[in-house]
Design a protein that fits this description.
Number of strands: 6
Helix content: 25-40%
Distance between the termini: 55 Å
Order of helices and strands: HEHEHEEHEHEHH
Structural class: alpha/beta
Oligomer: single chain
Mean pLDDT: 91
Shape: globular
């Protein structure tokens, strides 16, 4: 009932919150899966009871499409793919993937059922990868800001090569899913097959950590940026979404290098990081 007052009089719910923690996980069910699923269920059920809500836009994740880039034997993933391999026992990051998969399936289950969705509220799921880009606050407790804080602070970020996307593109996708006629659905579909209304927002390939550190070192030659070790060649194509034209985003996502450099610039301007000058060593 806590969410019912929040959605009163609204015509759309954006459900964006879910625990994203991949380290120090001792109880993945309690720390990741249950909060993700129960939070989604509670928020969506409250919205479905509202007489004014017409659409619900869920922030899911590319984690709901795969456990590993090798799941399809080298083929790329699109909005029709579901993660069927992640388990609680596979570690923090994979438990997070499981939490996002279960939460998104719960979302489509609630929309698809006539008993829980008598008002025929439609929905869409936005599936971002690792979100980067300029923050608006000094907080550095998130995974991506921690990554940049470590890099600018002279440490080697613990997160390795990973697909990335820009926070502004993710926000745009949410808004366009709400505003665009025909971009939402799922009503009456109880088999989790509302795939045309799942939108992957991500770089096609993994962004190499070595590349990120090199870009930062070139941009800030006076800072002590560590030199990463690892692959420097392009990764395989991991994501190949086929429905972004519905949101006007096909081929219009920001480049990861641009996003990362603008993120670094913003965090330095906000003084949310403590960079080490080379001469201080």
């Amino acid at each position: 009932q806590a969410f019912e007052a929040c959605v009163e009089g609204a015509d759309v719910l954006f459900h964006t919150a879910s625990p994203f923690v991949t380290t120090d996980i001792v109880d993945p069910l309690a720390q990741l899966v249950l909060p993700a699923v129960q939070g989604t269920e509670n928020a969506v059920k409250a919205a479905l009871k509202s007489p004014t809500i017409k659409k619900i836009i869920l922030t899911s994740s590319i984690a709901a499409t795969m456990s590993s880039a090798l799941d399809k034997n080298g083929d790329c993933f699109d909005h029709s793919d579901w993660n069927a391999k992640s388990t609680l026992d596979s570690g923090g990051l994979d438990a997070y993937r499981l939490s996002k998969t279960k939460a998104e399936k719960k979302f489509w289950e609630l929309l698809g059922s006539s008993s829980s969705n008598p008002n025929k509220v439609s929905g869409a799921a936005i599936l971002p990868s690792f979100i980067v880009g300029p923050p608006r606050s000094r907080r550095t407790d998130g995974e991506s800001t921690t990554f940049m804080k470590m890099a600018l602070g002279g440490a080697l970020p613990y997160r390795g090569d990973t697909p990335m996307c820009d926070v502004r593109d993710v926000a745009t996708a949410h808004l366009r899913a709400w505003e665009t006629p025909g971009a939402t659905g799922g009503v009456g579909n109880t088999e989790h097959t509302s795939i045309e209304f799942r939108y992957i927002i991500s770089s096609a390939r993994a962004v190499r950590r070595t590349s990120v550190l090199s870009w930062l070192a070139d941009q800030y030659p006076k800072l002590s940026i560590v030199k990463g070790e690892g692959l420097t060649t392009e990764s395989q194509v991991i994501f190949c979404p086929k429905n972004l034209a519905a949101l006007g985003l096909d081929g219009n996502l920001r480049d990861a290098k641009q996003s990362l450099l603008e993120m670094a610039e913003a965090m330095l301007a906000l003084r949310s990081v403590s960079p080490i000058q080379k001469q201080e060593l």
